[in-house]
């Protein structure tokens, strides 16, 4: 039984749920969003990722109706909603601070949105009970927000924003206030709830691991623009710029001059050193400056020169960062270039093969390294 | 325990004596049997009895309560509105002027406020009486309300209002259902403050009242000028009692709520960790 892969963004006939068309938002002199165009599809779990001040929150607040764009259009299901107030659009938001009403019980918090419509009382009660079950909060219905723990508060906020069955749910750093362990559990819970309700989720986060875990697609933002939109694996494996490669995970960047050979590019990175071979993200001219990006976990480390590897280079262990499951070796090459290589600690630490000052060989394949223009 | 050194004890005693000795003497003498205020002639509650018979005092008390109740309510509505404008509307044109003008009555000498209001009422041809005192008290007490309410609004998480809008409230509903219940303690203490200010105001009331309306402070003042009577002591003791009961109750309620909230939060965090 072949399962169809969820990828409406590759289907030319798919109609996007949300369309940003040349949206610009200025606050006085400051441009928060700069001529941004993007499509988000139904049932997607879309992550907006970027450092603080990149405009991801502004983008989300425009979807929620708390900011109006200076220029451009925002369409939701084919209708321009750029100037529709928040209470008139079927979009709900889960706030970073959760924004639970302190004077109302958990039950009343969840029922709050439902009571604003013309829903009969019995139906409201049913819906609230359903939401309490979904978020496993049945026991806490009569408590006030300050009488439950942080993780439970987070679930109340989620239940409240899902209660009205919005076409689009916005999540503003939803897990920012939770500790790491709870955050990981909650990520899977979020994905599960998203799948079960079939709601389109747009999440804002600065945590790349979180974005990679939950999202169907990730948009990496910088200075009010989207630098790259792709699935988590595509963002990680084939970043389109040094900025994206550096923002997502750990990466070695080696600057040099390009020497195209067939569909591969050889990188001339230091005098008298073997060239590195990699796969280009875009065509390169001979002699053009380029950035060679290689992930530390894709580099193997050995005592002898490995046979048959495409890229090999010798260096000296400068530093070792022991992280428990893996160790990161900082290896200095001739000419002072330092490369990070990771090795899984599948043996006890006392049996470690390399130590400070050892001469080692690094090797990797020609598809592991990516050549980027900028 | 080094808390009760002789220095601490002395300064505490002196401080309390300074604050409360006059009031204690007043309370003691209100139970004096003698007609002469300064001569002790045994315990008695006769002046309280005579006070209840005194229609002039009772009328004045009724006027005072009416004025304080209405003016503090009006001041609370206006002061809360002013606080919202100042905290929420951002940097609109003329904001500094507006906030300056709101807070000016705080530092304005009462005599000047009273005089200018008197001139205004004469200019407008308003008959001076209960109505004009209410207007005057509203004017000077609304700035106190707006100070109290705006200090609460500054620490108010605006995302609560945004959440209300997001869940389908109109801006007015969001205020009524979310903002107002949360800032209610500040609004109530603003009202209490305005009420007490109006209750003990003498200067502004003297300027703006007419022959038909006399407030209790005015009545006390005018009778004291003819000599301090033990009846006044009894009346003042009653006022002290009312104010004390009010203040103590209010502070006990808010303290217990705070303690309860802290205990709940700690319990919730422990439960969440387990």
TrEMBL record, chain A:
GO molecular function: ABC-type polyamine transporter activity; ATP binding; ATP hydrolysis activity
Domain ABC transporter: residue ranges: 18-248
SMART domains associated with the record: AAA (SM00382)
Key word Cell inner membrane present: yes
Biological processes, Gene Ontology terms: putrescine transport
Catalysed reaction, written as an equation: ATP + H2O + polyamine-[polyamine-binding protein]Side 1 = ADP + phosphate + polyamineSide 2 + [polyamine-binding protein]Side 1
EC number: 7.6.2.11
Coiled coil regions in record: none
Keyword terms: ATP-binding, Cell inner membrane, Cell membrane, Membrane, Nucleotide-binding, Translocase, Transport
Any one annotated GO CC term: ATP-binding cassette (ABC) transporter complex
Keyword Nucleotide-binding assigned: yes
Top-level taxon: Bacteria
Region forming the signal peptide: none
Alphabetized InterPro entries for the sequence: AAA+_ATPase, ABC_SmlMolc_Importer, ABC_transporter-like_ATP-bd, ABC_transporter-like_CS, Mo/tungstate-bd_C_term_dom, NA-bd_OB-fold, P-loop_NTPase, PotA-like
EC class: translocase
Family to which the UniProt record says this protein belongs: Belongs to the ABC transporter superfamily. Spermidine/putrescine importer (TC 3.A.1.11.1) family.
Record's subunit section: The complex is composed of two ATP-binding proteins (PotA), two transmembrane proteins (PotB and PotC) and a solute-binding protein (PotD).
Reported function: Part of the ABC transporter complex PotABCD involved in spermidine/putrescine import. Responsible for energy coupling to the transport system.
Protein name: Spermidine/putrescine import ATP-binding protein PotA
Protein species of origin: Salinihabitans flavidus
Organism phylogeny: Bacteria, Pseudomonadati, Pseudomonadota, Alphaproteobacteria, Rhodobacterales
TrEMBL record, chain B:
Membrane topology, record value: Multi-pass membrane protein
Family label: Belongs to the binding-protein-dependent transport system permease family. CysTW subfamily.
GO CC entries: plasma membrane
Protein origin, superkingdom: Bacteria
Lineage: Bacteria, Pseudomonadati, Pseudomonadota, Alphaproteobacteria, Rhodobacterales
ABC transmembrane type-1 domain: residues covered: 61-253
PROSITE patterns: ABC_TM1
UniProt keyword terms in alphabetical order: Cell membrane, Membrane, Transmembrane, Transmembrane helix, Transport
Keyword Transmembrane annotated: yes
Cross-referenced InterPro entries: Bact_Polyamine_Transport (IPR051789), MetI-like (IPR000515), MetI-like_sf (IPR035906)
Compartments where located: Cell membrane
Keyword set includes Transport: yes
Pfam family, one: BPD_transp_1
Name assigned to this protein: Putrescine transport system permease protein
A Gene Ontology biological process term: transmembrane transport
Residues passing through the membrane, by range: 12-31, 67-89, 101-124, 130-154, 174-194, 232-253
Main localization (coarse): membrane
